[in-house]
Amino acid sequence: MPAILNSSLFNFHHHPLFSTAVLSLRRHHLNVSLFSASRTTLRAYSTSSSSVPIESSANQNVRTGRSGSATSPPVEHDTAQKIDVNPPKGTRDFPPEDMRLRNWLFHHFREVSQQFGFEEVDFPVLESEALYIRKAGEEIRDQLYCFEDRGNRRVALRPELTPSLARLVIQKGKSVSLPLKWFAIGQCWRYERMTRGRRREHYQWNMDIIGVPDVMGEAELISSIITFFKRIGLTASDVGFKVSSRKVLQEVLKCYSVPENMFGRVCIIIDKIGKIPMDDIRKDLLSADMSEVAIEDLLQVLSLKSLAKLEEKLGASGEALSDLKQLFSLAEKYGYSEWLHFDASIVRGLAYYTGIVFEGFDREGKLRAICGGGRYDRLLSTFGGDDLPACGFGFGDAVIVELLKERGLLPELNLQVENIVCSLDQELQGAACAVATILREKGQSVDLVLENKPLKWVFKRAARINARRLILVGKAEWQKGMVNVKTLSTGEQLEIKLDELE
Amino acid sequence: MPAILNSSLFNFHHHPLFSTAVLSLRRHHLNVSLFSASRTTLRAYSTSSSSVPIESSANQNVRTGRSGSATSPPVEHDTAQKIDVNPPKGTRDFPPEDMRLRNWLFHHFREVSQQFGFEEVDFPVLESEALYIRKAGEEIRDQLYCFEDRGNRRVALRPELTPSLARLVIQKGKSVSLPLKWFAIGQCWRYERMTRGRRREHYQWNMDIIGVPDVMGEAELISSIITFFKRIGLTASDVGFKVSSRKVLQEVLKCYSVPENMFGRVCIIIDKIGKIPMDDIRKDLLSADMSEVAIEDLLQVLSLKSLAKLEEKLGASGEALSDLKQLFSLAEKYGYSEWLHFDASIVRGLAYYTGIVFEGFDREGKLRAICGGGRYDRLLSTFGGDDLPACGFGFGDAVIVELLKERGLLPELNLQVENIVCSLDQELQGAACAVATILREKGQSVDLVLENKPLKWVFKRAARINARRLILVGKAEWQKGMVNVKTLSTGEQLEIKLDELE
């Protein structure tokens, strides 16, 4: 019986209207590193350097070592060196198994975004460098993947999507009606030393709301991320959100008359707490016009983990507290209170946030932040536009996959083609093409065997692609206008008329 | 009656399992230029140059012109100049309306590929420049968007996908079972003078078959493109394929003892016929070691438009003829003969093709080639790998959209969110969040009104997003655990219990 011959790690289902995978989630560990192309296979082809000097000479590089034949017309063999078969350092190929996972992830990003009424947008991966020039000492700025193009323009591979979004919002101006609810899934780049297995590119899911000044915006964004978490099998005991507001810092800085233009810089310094020594943090804060007293007070505020304590410290009247209180109250209504925690130390590493900031974290504390976002009401004016209230988040494709792997929640995804069609005779190859076409016109997916192969090979391939049916085109049946249809799960075999094939 | 208030140009449907748009095709003209972001709006924000010099000074750029307030904490205003609100020259933003069209197109690319049993793959958009260094004088090579990165590596934004695919195939080596049937949809870049409205980036759909030496491969690829054309409403009277084989040229060159290593270069020169003056073509061919007699004979062969004439010229024994005959015979079996035409002048502009070549063209002759492809059995060895028989095609996103516009076949795509949920009272905003969550958990899409807005505004928004239902959360109903549900197409209005809401 032609049951599935080789068991497959992933199980992939096609939906007629959907391009990626429908999941089956199982709580178990898979000992495979998805999203990380193997760098071992055929390493022998690699050269130690990945770059080949350009030969600018116009002379022909006539080589005689390779003989062409009528069977294989020669192409010019210009590349003297063997190329590196790996993608450039820090980047990934997506072979089919990794692509299925990426599509699965993006599918859920899209589905959640659309359930929340967001529209998809995108921007060029290559942007003007000017879009990312900020002076706050952000990590993202230091890691800008920038170039000079052939027209002597300073360009950069986008490190994030928000500046492009801001640019487009300014460009659209009054032609769009607010609020805008936009999402994007785009590749972002950073040029950093390749430590800790961090890559130089990742895909990022962004959702942004433009035109809503109220904390309702942030509450809705967090709700969408939680909806995503739930869909992929994560619960409030797996992940949570740390929430604060930059207005907390602002109120402290105001007490100590720290110049307002230092605000972004101070936030970036504080975001480095835990990543660099506290002495360096204090030194950096001193150089940002903060007194020692102010610094100690600030650090004390940052240690607060309850709104009650924050109220003791800042009083009940400030916006920081009322925003945060409203967010926690909305969280109750949405039903996600247990996911949310006030943590004054959260500031996020981007200069442009102005209000609520949040980050998703794994409760086992092993991984970097899963996602992060907040309110950025003043970004547009830094680009010369009129400010609009705005909030949004970024959610990368790297940490979440790590987390799913840790929790044994990676989906089983496998190729699945409904039918495999094969002729039993060289002369019937054209007939097999006709059969494949009939099935495809009826919406079925068909892997057509394009060569003459033994039946054993065909069954093996059928198993590999998880085919449901094997359709054999043989002489005797074909003369009757029929084909042999074998249901692979049961072994049941029928002769079916071409016009009854479905 | 709350019917749709403002008529919408496009009509967008959500499918619960599908992220992009389901089309409704209509044969009429839309006088809008999709896929071309408006460059007029807010042009006032643009500077004449798109690049802003980097300020390298470490000093703080303390500016006092902007006052921060507790309401809007200040961010550092580092960008002195107003930025260009347009994407970099030759690139595109994808605002929602353009993104819907892109998703629609990609959806059909994916669906067709999967119907043919192909698996999706992807590669880095930034590749090592070495991958594209070929000496044949290809247009694609001259337009390489290349840089030196911060690690002094020569890198390039990929101009095409095939070299990356070849790299990955070599890397995977014997770990994959042949044939591979892979497809990809990726952005490709070329740096060219911005003439004739050509852009510097485009998305390209590729399908490739690795491991099949027989013309069945090419026939299957052409069948998949035709399946795509049919899906989007194009017929054999709109488009066709010009088909030839590079073996035709090879046989002619062999007669005249033209060195084999000139083959790729001669193909590239011939591909320029019609684009540059014939005198230049002749001059280039002379410099490629061809005699004047050979050139005239070659040009005569290239003018042939029937296989019978080709057989007269080359005899019946060659591979060129037998491959082409087989392809036309298979086309009959597939049922797409009327789409296919032999045209000896087709060679395609890439150096690596070795056998059958084909291109899709519009029958009105107004547009550049819609797509192109062929057999490339010798590409892997140019990268230091073992050759494998291979064929594939590239299909860009630009010309096809032009063609659909010409033919009035652009789909009507519009945002559609199933429900709009709104509280009638500031105090009930949390209740509205709860209602939105209930509906979303039941798989419905919900646009939640995040501010207090007058009902008139809400109806307008409902129309803009093509909502099916308006759900109002009012005090009286809420106290009874109910909400007001209005079906917008009929105006029908019902009070429904929360737990009966679906």
From TrEMBL, chains A, B:
EC supergroup of this enzyme: ligase
Segments of this protein annotated with the region Disordered: 48-94
GO biological process: histidyl-tRNA aminoacylation
Biased composition (Polar residues): 58-72
HAMAP family in UniProt: His_tRNA_synth
Similarity annotation: Belongs to the class-II aminoacyl-tRNA synthetase family.
The protein's name in its UniProt record: histidine--tRNA ligase
